[in-house]
TrEMBL record:
It comes from the Bacteria. Pfam families: P-II. InterPro entries: N-reg_PII (IPR002187), N-reg_PII-like_a/b (IPR011322), N-reg_PII/ATP_PRibTrfase_C (IPR015867). This is P-II family nitrogen regulator. It comes from Prosthecochloris ethylica.
Amino acid sequence: MKLITAIIQEDKLDEVREALIQADVTRISVSRISGHGRQEDIDIYRGRRIAPNLLPKTRIEIAVNEDFVEQTIDTIIAAARHGDGEIGDGKIFVTPLEECVRIRTGERGRSAI
Ligand SMILES: Nc1ncnc2c1ncn2[C@@H]1O[C@H](COP(=O)(O)OP(=O)(O)OP(=O)(O)O)[C@@H](O)[C@H]1O
Ligand SMILES: [Mg+2]
């Protein structure tokens, strides 16, 4: 199992959710966060590099079985990109997921996802 965490632009959330549903990825957690990525033009104030402003972003988290990883990533990319891709479109992180438990039934692992 993997945990797919994507940070996307707020305006793309509905498009991404819609596309994931069409790709049969039906479970998702969403949070509103703020962050910044790499700085193309680093701001310098009195000789020191200064932290850029935090921008509002949307984080989605999806736990999937191995056979869903690639289609989930591809779907997020296709739906979250502005045009041919713009700075700040976002990032996807994939981390190993050790366990998943459905609280209602106590099921574990793939069938609990
Ligand atoms: N390495 C990282 N660690 C943690 N959060 C990150 C990282 N990279 C990006 N983020 C988060 O993702 C958001 C979007 O990142 P962003 O798309 O700007 O990435 P980037 O590496 O700067 O690429 P680009 O050049 O396309 O802008 C950031 O605002 C931040 O919240
Ligand atoms: Mg950036």
